């Protein structure tokens, strides 16, 4: 509340629930590769949205479209109701992207000083340093920083303009647990200041820790959308392994089974919920043995979600 | 009027007029600092022309003359051209290729930085390094090589050589758009070293084989060095206007190629 009172300009944006960024029916092709297919996606003022998906799912492509760094092959991209390349929109937007190399001979404070100059109403320098936890590193050259420290500088550059809308593309990739938690805290502080945040991640845990809403993206399509707990419930798939005389086609027809395959002498099944499937298996095959039930990994969970939408399998035609 | 539009005007963002100028200044300042601290750039770009000048102009031939022009004076013009070319090509192409290939340019483009500021900073930095090289050659020549000329000629020579940074900066931008972060330095060397030789920057022009001299006529460093040599009275008495025209045309072509690269980059992203 205090933050809101000190920042009266956010009150309007936070409460109105306005759409600040959107993708409408967006396709994006790179040559013959379809990076995004028919994506509809909205970010409302004041919310934190996570775009969750495995590597190569199209998360970065979506962020680059919203930043106006690339143009959709079809569909419409809007930020603050206008074109994302509009310079005025860019003054209200901050971005943390995955960068291969940042000029290494400039000091932390010099990088921040330069980026702050780009914005009409930047945050105070000391405030940026504090928000990104860089007070002790201000005079270090970028090239002398550790991976986690470098990420914090990129975060500082994203927030230094005091933007209304913040894009964070895999902000914690490659960070250790401690550094990740630290960055989460910084992101939460930005949220407390009333910022709208879109972050991409391939950690369900991270989406859960930060986001109001999660959109799961796989192979260029949004396959699920909801609150973190809704998504968690959906992705809590199970892997069932057993040795059985039942034919693979029979197994596929058991209700709840999303995938079945032979694996050496055993079969491996995937199911959203294990119990009904196991009950059915035991009822049909009294000789069944070697039963194992484990939590499916996120990759499998994505597969389950994809099947769960009832649509066509996700293969490029 | 829709609510969206109202909110937009509510938090309307605009830069104050002076702010844009400050962005250009800071962009140039930090580009300069970045390259100054990058020893691979600052040391090599400064040391080669100075080393050549000390060796061939001060140690070996300081009492000789080429076509009646004192060698240390002559070599300020040619080594100056060589230095300006190196500073400008490496100052623009290497940084641009790396920023483009490794994602930094995207961070810049996503920010509200005016795109032109980025290019201007590279060109200005190249011009500053060019000026430093020329002044260093002057200083060495005056102190150790007995170089004497009217102050006005010094000023003219400095102005011509620093202006000569522009065509090579343009060439660097073009190269930066068509080379990768790892291949850029090698590509620059592959172009600029033979071009320096053929233009008479290492071996005085009249001592070059005839077919090389014919190639030189289409090479921009030849024209810049002839403008510089003209000031110290050692030019080949061709029309200065022609030299300027060739350099201008070359600059325009390079900017055109750079623009193609810029657009290609956009379109690659634009799918």
Low-confidence stretches of chain A: 1-15, 308-317
Number of spatially distinct domains of chain A:
2
Overall, the morphology of chain A is elongated
CATH homologous group name of the largest domain in chain A: P-loop containing nucleotide triphosphate hydrolases
> What name is given to the CATH topology of the largest domain in chain A?
Rossmann fold
End-to-end separation of chain B: 34 Å
- Order of neighbouring strands in the sheet with most strands of chain B: 1-2
Structural class of chain B: mainly alpha
CATH architecture label name of the largest domain in chain A: 3-Layer(aba) Sandwich
The two chains with the largest interface, and their residue counts, are: A-B, 51 and 40 residues
Give the biggest sheet of chain A: 6 strands, mixed
The topology string of helices and strands of chain A comes to HHEEEHEHEHHHEHEHEEHEHEEHEH
- The stretches of 5 or more residues of chain B where confidence is low (pLDDT under 50) are 1-10
How many DSSP-defined strands of chain B? 2
Counted by DSSP, the helix tally of chain B is: 12
CATH class of the largest domain in chain A: Alpha Beta
Walk me through the structure:
The complex is a heterodimer of chains A (317) and B (271). Chain A has two domains: 2-233, Rossmann fold, CATH 3.40.50; 238-295, Alpha-Beta Plaits (2-Layer Sandwich). Chain A is built from 13 helices and 13 strands. Chain A is of the alpha/beta class. Chain A is elongated and about 70 Å long. In chain A, 36% of the residues lie in helices and 28% in strands. Chain B has twelve helices and two strands. Chain B has a two-stranded antiparallel ribbon. In chain B, helix 4 (71-101) packs antiparallel against helix 9 (184-198). The longest helix of chain B is centred in the first third of the chain and has 31 residues, at 71-101. Classes of the chains: A alpha/beta (317), B mainly alpha (271). The interface between A and B is large, with 51 and 40 residues.
């Amino acid at each position: 509340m205090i933050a809101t009172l000190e920042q009266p300009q956010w009150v309007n944006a936070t409460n109105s629930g306005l759409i600040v960024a959107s993708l409408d029916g967006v396709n994006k092709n790179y040559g013959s590769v379809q990076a995004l297919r028919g994506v509809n996606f909205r970010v409302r003022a004041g919310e934190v949205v996570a775009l969750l998906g495995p590597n190569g799912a199209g998360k970065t492509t979506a962020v680059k479209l919203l930043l106006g760094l690339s143009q959709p092959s079809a569909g419409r991209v809007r930020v603050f109701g206008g074109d994302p390349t509009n310079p005025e929109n860019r003054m209200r937007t901050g971005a943390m992207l995955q960068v291969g190399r940042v000029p290494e001979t400039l000091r932390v404070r010099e990088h921040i000083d330069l980026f702050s100059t780009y914005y009409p109403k930047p945050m105070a320098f000391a405030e940026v340093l504090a928000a990104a936890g860089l007070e002790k590193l201000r005079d270090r050259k970028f090239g002398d920083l550790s991976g986690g420290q470098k990420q914090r500088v990129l975060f500082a550059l994203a927030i230094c303009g005091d933007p209304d809308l913040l894009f964070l593309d895999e902000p914690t990739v490659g960070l250790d647990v401690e550094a990740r938690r630290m960055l989460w805290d910084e992101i939460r502080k930005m949220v407390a200041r009333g910022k709208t945040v879109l972050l991409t991640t391939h950690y369900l845990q991270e989406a859960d820790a930060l986001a109001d809403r999660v959109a799961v993206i796989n192979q260029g399509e949004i396959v699920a959308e909801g609150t973190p707990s809704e998504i968690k419930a959906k992705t809590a798939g199970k892997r069932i392994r057993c040795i059985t005389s039942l034919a693979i086609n029979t197994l596929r027809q058991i209700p709840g089974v999303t995938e079945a395959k032979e694996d050496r002498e055993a079969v491996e099944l995937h199911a959203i919920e294990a119990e009904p499937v196991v009950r059915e298996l035991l009822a049909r095959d009294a000789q069944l043995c070697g039963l194992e039930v484990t939590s499916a990994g996120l990759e499998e969970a994505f597969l389950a979600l994809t099947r769960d939408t009832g649509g066509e399998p996700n293969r490029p035609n | 009027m829709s609510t969206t539009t109202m909110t937009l005007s509510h938090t309307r963002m605009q830069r104050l007029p002076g702010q844009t100028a400050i962005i250009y200044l800071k962009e140039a300042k930090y580009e300069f600092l970045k390259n100054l601290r990058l020893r691979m750039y600052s040391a090599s770009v400064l040391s080669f022309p100075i080393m050549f000048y000390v060796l061939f102009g001060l140690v070996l031939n300081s009492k000789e003359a080429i076509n009646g022009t004192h060698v240390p004076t002559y070599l300020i013009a040619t080594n100056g051209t060589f230095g300006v070319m190196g500073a400008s090509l490496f100052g623009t192409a290497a940084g641009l290729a790396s920023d483009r290939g490794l994602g930094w340019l995207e961070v810049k483009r996503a920010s509200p930085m005016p795109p032109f500021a980025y290019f201007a900073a590279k060109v200005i930095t190249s011009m500053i390094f060019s000026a430093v090289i020329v002044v260093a050659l002057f200083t060495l020549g005056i102190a150790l090589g007995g170089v004497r000329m009217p102050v006005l000629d010094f000023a003219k020579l400095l102005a011509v050589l620093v202006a000569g940074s522009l065509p090579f900066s343009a060439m660097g931008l073009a190269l930066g758009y068509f080379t990768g972060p790892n291949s850029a330095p090698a590509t620059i060397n592959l172009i600029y070293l033979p071009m320096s030789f053929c233009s008479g920057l290492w071996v005085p022009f009249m001592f070059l084989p005839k077919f090389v001299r014919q190639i030189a006529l289409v090479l921009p460093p030849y024209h810049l060095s002839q403008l510089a040599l003209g000031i110290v009275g050692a030019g080949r008495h061709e029309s200065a206007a022609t030299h300027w025209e060739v350099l201008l045309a070359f600059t325009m072509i390079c900017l055109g190629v750079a623009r193609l690269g810029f657009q290609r980059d956009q379109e690659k992203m634009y799918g």
